[in-house]
Specification:
- The complex is a heterotrimer.
- By secondary structure, chain A is α+β, with helices and mostly antiparallel strands.
- Chain A has seven helices and six strands, in the order ββααββαααββαα.
- Chain A has two domains: 4-131, no CATH class; 145-184.
- In chain A, strands 1, 2, 3, 4 and 5 form a five-stranded antiparallel beta sheet that branches.
- Chain B folds into two domains: 4-130, no CATH class; 145-207, no CATH class.
- In chain B, helix 2 crosses helix 4.
- Chain B is elongated and about 75 Å long.
- Classes of the chains: A alpha+beta, B alpha+beta, C alpha+beta.
- Strand 3 (48-56) of chain A pairs antiparallel with strand 5 (137-140) of chain B, so a sheet runs across the interface.
Chain lengths: 198, 207, 461
């Protein structure tokens, strides 16, 4: 299944938009980028490595040679690419449950979008507009974004500990080690294979 | 610059695929077959392209008809989407592709319109940028670590977790000695291979 | 305000019977005509959810079906195809999703689970005599109609200590807290059992999370088999026979309890998130509190927002995994569609704490869970929260007590503070404390649906 590599899922989606709606979406994306707090929910959900939206205007499809026919399109297109952890259902359930306002703000400009609540119609729409990945590479298939962030924290704290504990007496060392453990105790889960997809 | 998020760059390239009615196997089909058989995990060509955190290749056949009252329409060409989440600058990255994986780049993009080849990395980069679409909004959960830093951190996490388990209950003097040996081993061990399917507890945590 | 049709919903679905003993019968339908007659005769006696105005009956009777059971009874193809995948596939086919591998693999289950299980019958009774009487009656009815063949009987009962029934299970933990509150159930909302509201209070969950035909937490009607009348007022059930390795558990606790600065009792509490008597660690991290446990307005009324580092209740403890409450942020909204309604009972001889225990003895829990969606509720919780830990930010670490630890290298981290009595502690080399010995997915139809099935009148339009 080429959409999946280890613990990461590569989702691709394309939706049509009436050209006059595109500038509105651009402004919304600009605001989303500028107002950090709006992204906090995405960060707190903590199951997306990287995600992006790409607006391709109807006259923007690359044309590299005169023999290549010119696209003649009515709609602009919104492309969506996500690299997330967990199953397809879990991902969409979570978004529908807690990020519906944000999702609606982005996709309401796409034709026939049913809204992200209730979830059944939303899932049907995504299945309609999703297309499959042919090749998916990740430098760390065994790591979710939570694993990566935990690793960075452990690494930083261990580095600081190694520096600060040089030259301590054994008892002082043990005290410092205990303090280190308290700092990293939530970050030392095992790294293993992804659960089998449902 | 919407393509950027911290030190991460969201590269989105849509390369039109050649449409040749004379050949037996169409370019898009051949491309799909090639991508299906391309090496994966640590043997993936992208493991050689420094800066590649996560990337994908997708043959986009057409746009979607979502149903009335939306209008039905079709693309006149198919497009190869190359979507990469890379650390660093885009020009250096594209030139790196040309230098490190020239054969694979040839195999893939020779199916696309206007491909100049890889002998001149700058020309390759320029060609790719001609097909680049600006990312409108780019989200990155972690946006400030190189691939190597990330892999090394993951390795540290695995090894230190094993250290904690194995050294629980040791006397202070023993603990200090074991940690010193552990840290020395960690310092010396090379980062794990990019793209590897698993990251097992290596030899770093034990003598 | 939702009004449940209590005359139509099966009693077992709407309430947890607090009878001391039960027996579960598994049967194969022999022939669809005679089978329907049998179902009709059972339906005449099936206990509904109506209130017992004249006190508890001496016994109750309820019935459930597997997908193959529905097919054997001649339900139309369009109906059969409208059931969800996991119900059609059956529990043993879903073993990799559920973590039933290694020792827990269906290859090691009791032989009956390989047979054609079509029906599940549950008898609950006030006395052992009543239990025998009612279950014998079921056997006679099967023979009389020629409609079904009894494959297997499972006895279960509350564990008696000093002559009194308790809600303990064989490891010694007090069970039965935290069953979800939902709208329409005729009992007071117990704080902590429903869903968390923005103002910090608890409210009942939407009925449709647990019974088909009512709006659910996604603000729509849950997916339902076709015709609608077959599904409404019904629900799905998970049935699992979970053997408990009591000797291994006690040995492991003895060993690690000596090393853990908090001691054995506290370590046992850390595994689950409650002390053996049921006191939640979150509310009383240092000692059990009998008054707290006895008070339903307090004994499950807590959140994890003041314990984000797990120093009170470990991040990977059993109850925190099975019901994370607000631990994942968003005021608990990510959890509302992942709740399960539990109905289990222990089985087998109880070994008192001061007697030597054995892993080989037949004892464990008959675990049953009800919900409108097997894959979204039980299966999800089992696969993502019990057998895995990413949502809790614990990587691949698993539930210390309930998960399958076939590799022998799994660990459980007890988070702590720099107080020497509560230091961080790692429990390594977790053995398999619980072994799956069998199980299946059933559908428990409403009484109206039972009559449709018995009459052969299921029409998918």
């Amino acid at each position: 299944m080429t959409n999946i590599n280890g613990k990461a899922y590569a989702m691709n989606a394309v939706t049509p938009m009436k050209a006059w709606k595109t500038p509105i979406l651009r402004i919304l994306f600009f605001l989303l980028g500028a107002i950090k707090s709006k992204q906090q929910d995405l960060i707190n959900l903590s199951f997306i490595h990287f995600a992006r939206w790409v607006i391709v205007k109807r006259n923007q499809f690359p044309r590299l040679a005169p023999e290549q026919p010119e696209e003649q399109l009515h709609y602009d297109y919104l492309l969506f690419f996500s690299n997330f952890n967990g199953t397809w259902n879990q991902y969409i359930d979570a978004f529908s449950a807690v990020l519906s306002t944000g999702l609606n703000m982005i996709w309401r400009w796409s034709e026939k979008f049913p809204g992200s609540v209730p979830v059944t119609a939303f899932k049907r729409y995504i299945a309609l507009v999703q297309f499959d990945t042919d090749y998916y590479y990740t430098a760390y298939p065994y790591a979710t974004t939570n694993d990566v962030k935990a690793a960075i924290r452990v690494d930083d704290r261990l580095q600081a500990f190694a520096n600060d504990s040089a030259g301590l007496s054994p008892d002082e060392f043990q005290q410092a080690y205990l303090k280190l453990l308290v700092k990293v105790q939530a970050d030392i889960g095992a790294l293993g294979p992804a659960p089998m997809g449902t | 610059m919407a393509n950027l998020n911290g030190n991460m760059y969201g590269l989105t390239i849509l390369s039109p695929i050649l449409d040749d009615p004379k050949i037996k196997i169409s370019h898009d089909t051949a491309l799909r077959m090639y991508l299906q058989n391309m090496h994966r995990h640590e043997r993936s060509p992208f493991a050689k392209v420094a800066g590649t955190h996560i990337c994908r290749l997708v043959v986009m056949d057409d746009v979607v008809y979502v149903g009335s009252p939306a209008k039905e329409e079709h693309l006149k060409s198919k497009y190869l989407i190359f979507n990469s989440n890379l650390y660093g600058g885009v020009d250096a990255y594209l030139e790196e592709m040309a230098r490190k994986i020239p054969d694979v780049a040839d195999d893939i993009w020779s199916h696309c319109v206007g491909y100049p080849g890889v002998t001149d990395p700058r020309a390759f980069a320029a060609y790719m940028k001609k097909c680049q679409i600006e990312t409108t909004f780019f989200f990155a959960d972690v946006n400030d670590k190189t691939v190597e830093q990330t892999l090394k951190a993951l390795q540290t996490k695995v090894e230190f977790t094993a250290f904690v388990e194995e050294n629980q209950g040791r006397s202070p003097a023993e603990l200090q000695r074991e940690f010193a040996a552990f840290w020395e081993r960690m310092r010396k061990s090379p980062p794990p291979d990019g793209g590897a399917k698993e990251l097992t507890k290596g030899q770093a945590a034990r003598a | 305000m939702v009004k449940l049709n209590l005359f139509d919903i099966q009693g077992f679905v709407a309430r947890g019977y607090s009878f001391p003993c039960a027996c579960y019968l598994l049967a194969e339908i022999l022939d669809y005509k005679a089978g329907r007659e049998f179902v009709g005769r059972v339906t005449e006696q099936v206990t509904s959810a109506e209130r017992w105005e004249q006190g508890k009956p001496p016994s109750t009777l309820n019935i459930g079906f597997t997908w193959t059971g529905f097919r054997k009874l001649g339900l139309p193809d369009a109906t059969l195809l409208s059931f969800p995948d996991e119900f059609y596939q059956g529990m043993s086919s879903r073993n990799r999703i559920l973590g039933d591998v290694g020792k827990n693999d269906p290859a090691n289950w009791e032989p009956v689970w390989k047979e054609d299980i079509h029906l599940w019958l549950a008898v609950y009774a006030q006395t052992a005599d009543e239990l025998a009487k009612r279950s014998d009656e079921m056997g006679r009815l099967m023979q009389e109609t020629g409609g079904a063949r009894l494959l297997y009987t499972q006895q279960a009962s509350a564990i008696y200590i000093d002559g009194k029934p308790t809600s303990k299970e064989h490891f010694g933990y007090t069970d039965g807290f935290g069953n979800p509150d939902y709208e329409g159930v005729e009992r007071d909302t117990v704080p902590g059992q429903g869903k968390l509201m923005p103002d910090g209070k608890w409210a009942p969950l939407a009925t449709g999370e647990f019974i088909l035909g009512y709006p659910d937490e996604a603000r729509e009607l849950p997916a339902c088999p076709v015709p609608y009348l077959l599904g409404i007022n019904g629900t799905y059930m998970v049935y699992r026979k979970l053997h408990e390795n009591v000797a291994s558990f006690r040995k492991y606790l003895d060993e690690k309890g000596k090393q853990y600065p908090g001691g054995k009792e506290k370590l046992a509490a850390k595994f689950v998130g409650r002390w053996l008597d049921g006191t939640p660690l979150e509310l009383s991290p240092d000692r059990p509190d009998p008054d707290l446990v006895r008070d339903p307005s307090r004994n499950t009324n807590f959140t994890y927002r003041h314990d984000s580092d797990g120093a009170r209740c470990p991040l990977g403890s059993h109850i925190r995994r099975a019901n994370p409450r607000d631990a994942f942020g968003f005021n608990g909204e990510l959890i509302n569609r992942r709740r399960i309604m539990r109905r289990g009972l222990p089985y087998g001889e109880y070994t008192p704490a001061d007697q030597p225990a054995s892993d080989e003895d037949e004892h464990g829990i008959i675990f049953m869970a009800l919900g409108a969606s097997l894959y979204r509720q039980f299966e999800f919780m089992q696969q993502q929260w019990i057998e895995y830990g990413n949502d809790a930010r614990l990587g691949n670490d698993k539930d210390p007590l309930a998960a399958c630890h076939s590799a022998g290298s799994d660990k459980f981290v007890v988070q702590g503070t720099d107080d020497p009595r509560n230091t961080p502690f790692v429990c390594s080399g977790l053995p398999n404390f619980v072994e799956t010995r069998g199980g299946e997915y059933f559908f428990l139809p409403s009484l109206t649906a039972l009559r449709l099935i018995a009459d052969g009148a299921v029409d998918p339009r």
